[in-house]
Amino acid sequence: MEFKTIIEPFRIKAVEPIRQTTRQERRQALREAGHNLFLLRAEDVLIDLLTDSGTGAMSSHQWAGMMKGDESYAGARSFFRFEEAVQKIAGLEHILPTHQGRAAERILARCLLKEGDIVPNNTHFDTTRANIEAAGATALDLPIAEGRQPRTEHPFKGNIDLAGLERVLREHPDQVPVVFITITNNSGGGQPVSMANIRAASELCQKFGVPLFLDACRFAENAWFIKMREEGYGESTPMEIAREMFSYAQGATMSAKKDGLSNIGGFLALNDDTLARRCKDELILTEGFPTYGGLAGYDLEALAVGLIEALDEDYLRYRVRSVSYLGERLIDMGVPIMRPPGGHAIYIDAAELLPHIPAHQYPAWALSLVLYLEGGIRSVEIGSVMFGIQPDGTEKPADMELVRLAFPRRVYTQSHVDYLVEVMAHVHSLRDRIRGVRITESPKVLRHFSARFEPVEDSLVL
Ligand SMILES: *Cc1c(COP(=O)(O)O)cnc(C)c1O
Known about the structure:
The protein is α/β, with parallel strands linked by helices. The protein is built from 16 helices and 14 strands.
């Protein structure tokens, strides 16, 4: 007998209480936070789906590993265990630990990019884009057409547009120092990239003599989707698939706060000896000596274990299934979501759910506030607040108005997901009464982290 219920493939050894609040308390908390969910106190949140970054639960093996952390400044045993784990998966030559993903991006941008360069990607994550633009280069998004259409079903919606990539490589022969593919495609909906697409992009890059790098934050989830959906990979292990994905790349940046199953950490990995030397110098300047890179020895131990655990089949099956379960319930009740559900998150299409709110009143931002107000759920806007500001300071609506519900790894259970379904049904019934917001105060870069807002009418829900 094969049972259908997907259970959490772990039992719980330590618990952390979460706190119920009243709607009135949440309304007050929103006012104090300037209607910006990033500015809330976490203890005022019941279910925190702001991000899956660094929010996961570590295993007993990881905690045990941390006791074995070697805190030597140089040449620590923990570094070599970490390096071995990364090389086992990625097969890349030089492994530079960093405190998180954006540090790897910054170091690479600093050592590789110059003013006027172009960096194509299926879709740049916000910190990747910011680091490229800070170097005076252009971050160019090249998702396939289906990747821009929330309702179109496609098994590998994260794919990069190969024709578009070839055109850029042909038309700007000396301006593209690196091509990126983000697996899975976070900003584009947590959608996977197929092996065929990575392979074809790699061949194009080779033809034009440009290195291909993976933004590998969710390499394990991407490997699982390839196993489930791509012809010829059903019998391969996630490890075998991950190794093949990396075999097409000359380098990678990684936030280990995602599929490293750790609370902090990242790395830059690359084959080019000269570039690696430059990056190591930069690493020493800002992160630390190359065998710890801003991390403690115990962090490196947690990573060495976590990177391998992330490729466990039972874990990946549970992880992807619990996210798609929420997606299916939302589709059943008529909530428009990015389809099919992504690996780490559900993305609600706020433009379609709230057609009465114009882009300049930030419908996705407003919806994320209402999810908190009604149910204590914290999500994140991926829309015109996050992406609507151009490098020259002008404002242009983003392609999509999405609210992302990102799932911390191994943290919430099925009953938490059922609660989310119930809150969503309630918010869906209120949709015509939800109103937009305006910005009252805003920094110039990465404004979503600290801007302040107010409802355009008396309240968020009339
Ligand atoms: C999280 C993330 C990053 C940045 O990593 P940090 O650890 O947050 O600095 C880069 N790219 C993608 C796709 C991400 O999801």
